[in-house]
Automatic annotation (TrEMBL):
A Pfam cross-reference name: VTT_dom
Organism: Alistipes timonensis JC136
InterPro entries xrefs: DedA_domain (IPR051311), VTT_dom (IPR032816)
VTT domain sequence ranges: 46-155
Keyword Transmembrane found: yes
UniProt KW keywords: Membrane, Transmembrane, Transmembrane helix
Transmembrane segment boundaries: 21-40, 110-132, 144-164
The protein's name: Membrane protein YqaA, SNARE-associated domain
Domain of life: Bacteria
Length: 165
């Protein structure tokens, strides 16, 4: 026995932010997904899995995450509409990622925003669609469909994995 209260382990900044977002429920999930959909690195999937594990409605979690992540992705689209590649590279999207996204999108249109959920290249896809001035409504609709499907797959995979234990 140590003879005193247990020592509090300090949290990292990311753990504190994640806990704050979890405490806010659906709105926290929306915000975490918005952050994750932008050029800032974050894992909204972890927040969603914790919230569903705590008993929040999985359908509403998917809705909050998909809408937030789409809005975050559309901030990348907006950055692309500014048309300044040097600004884009300062945000952490490399010229190589932009070139890969341009090649991926060449000859295709706004519906390619469906693939904005892809890791690493997703933000670049949205930015290039903005640079190309693709139809904003088709872009956002396709992006919403792709991101919704991704969250459904993540949640189904997590819940399926839980049944193994």
């Amino acid at each position: 026995m140590s003879g005193g209260p247990p020592k509090k382990v300090p949290r990292t900044r990311m753990e504190s932010i994640t806990q704050f977002l979890i405490d806010w429920g659906y709105w926290g999930l929306f915000l975490s997904a918005l952050i994750a959909g932008s050029v800032l690195p974050f894992s909204s999937e972890a927040v969603m899995v914790v919230l569903v594990g705590m008993g929040l409605d999985p359908v509403w979690c998917i809705v909050a995450a998909a809408l937030g992540n789409t809005l975050g992705g559309m901030t990348c689209y907006w950055i692309g509409t500014l048309g300044k590649t040097e600004w884009i590279t300062r945000l952490g999207v490399s010229t190589r990622q932009l070139a890969r996204a341009r090649k991926f999108l060449s000859g295709r249109g706004a519906l390619m925003a469906f693939f904005a959920f892809l890791p690493t290249i997703g933000e670049a896809i949205a930015i290039v669609l903005g640079l190309m001035r693709s139809n904003v409504w088709l872009t956002s609709g396709a992006m919403l469909a792709g991101k919704t499907l991704r969250y459904i797959v993540v949640l189904a995979t997590f819940q399926g994995a839980l049944t193994l234990f």
